[in-house]
DNA sequence: ATGGGGTGTAGTCGACCACTCACTCTTTCT
DNA sequence: AGAAAGAGTGAGTGGTCGACTACACCCCAT
């Protein structure tokens, strides 16, 4: 009966991952400085003290969340690339973009990326996480699609434009300027 | 001699504007939640209490700063457009982009825009300020350049890409991925 | 020369923050 | 059975924040 899965307590590793998952929703709203560790704890269903047993500091917690987000983005891109293997670079990029659009239909992922970018300005650890995250992502997109520099650049530029559209909830504003900015961008 | 400029005390209006100008530098680093009103006061060379005499709340102060930034962006774009009147839409966009690049050679302007975007997620007043700011800017760029929707969209997408590059200080990283993202983007 | 209104500050206050520690309860090992 | 190891928490700590009040100062019109 060793491997019996009936346990009241989870292992620390399980907890750490579940905290990462739920912390995305917590940080998505008010970002690194605006979100308290108490809110993260409540979202995870544990005490605030235990957050500090799982992660040494708030900063370490946030950077772990950021890295987790980049992993999920990477997974989505891989799935998109797999669905278009053997096509032209442009078609692969399109498929990746579609997979990304599907991933961020839950806005929280994208909002954490935005807040991470903002926190990267003043927090060196966050900056480092964001840098390596984008480094890996850019190189992956380039390699998996085989697209030229300009197309890869446009791919990320449009991604950044998505950050803007989501952060100000442009969907809720029906005006020429929102239609111009959102033109051709898929929403699920 | 009414307009005699020798005064130790400034009028509240003058102070308000000087606070807005210096507050850009204060908010540029850690954004809305991460910057204290005391820091804003110190940057302006006044007491923290006086910040609250000039602006009713921290939120009102921040949104005023955001609006001030949009005004300066608008002025730069106008200058860029003026330098290319009568050219093709593409040339006007180029000239505007160049003027914008010059404006944000001081990074603070752009960082405030980024932080405003982040704060817009949770603070309705900030969201409203950012929305109307972009609404005006998009319509101005469209009207002054006469460019098509796609070009206008790309113009702003590249602007958003600049936000990323500056926030993670991509200039300091010499790697293929940074060169790809920064390709063709002027830096002064 | 003085009264009054605008400029500016010191001091404070309750709320809340990141973080700590002593402690209990559960599971596993022997 | 009993002890060691690990999961999880209640109750704080010191410090700081936004906001407010009460008061000093300066300048100009009268």
From TrEMBL, chains A, B:
Domain HTH tetR-type, by residue range, is 13-73
| Keyword DNA-binding included in the entry's annotation | yes
The molecular function terms of the Gene Ontology recorded here are: DNA-binding transcription factor activity; transcription cis-regulatory region binding
Keywords, alphabetical: DNA-binding
State whether keyword DNA-binding applies: yes
Q: Which InterPro entries match?
A: Homeodomain-like_sf, HTH-type_TetR-like_transc_reg, HTH_TetR
Q: Which residues bind DNA?
A: 36-55
| Entry-linked PROSITE patterns | HTH_TETR_2 (PS50977)
Superkingdom is: Bacteria
Cross-referenced PANTHER family, in alphabetical order?
Answer: HTH-TYPE TRANSCRIPTIONAL DUAL REGULATOR CECR, HTH-TYPE TRANSCRIPTIONAL REGULATOR RUTR
What name does UniProt use for this protein? TetR family transcriptional regulator
């Amino acid at each position: 009966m060793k491997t019996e899965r009936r346990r009241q307590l989870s292992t620390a590793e399980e907890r750490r991952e579940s905290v990462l998952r739920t912390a995305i929703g917590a940080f998505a709203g008010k970002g690194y400085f605006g979100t308290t560790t108490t809110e993260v704890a409540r979202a995870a269903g544990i005490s605030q003290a235990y957050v500090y047993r799982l992660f040494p500091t708030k900063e370490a917690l946030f950077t772990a969340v950021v890295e987790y987000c980049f992993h999920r983005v990477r997974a989505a891109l891989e799935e998109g690339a797999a669905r278009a293997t053997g096509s032209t670079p442009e078609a692969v990029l399109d498929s990746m973009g579609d997979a990304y659009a599907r991933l961020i239909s839950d806005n929280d992922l994208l909002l954490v990326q935005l807040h991470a970018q903002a926190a990267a300005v003043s927090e060196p650890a966050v900056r480092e996480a964001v840098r390596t995250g984008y480094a890996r992502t850019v190189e992956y997109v380039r390699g998996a699609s085989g697209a030229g520099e300009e197309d890869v650049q446009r791919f990320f530029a449009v991604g950044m434009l998505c950050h803007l559209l989501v952060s100000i909830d442009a969907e809720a504003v029906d005006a020429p300027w929102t239609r111009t900015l959102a033109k051709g961008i898929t929403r699920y």
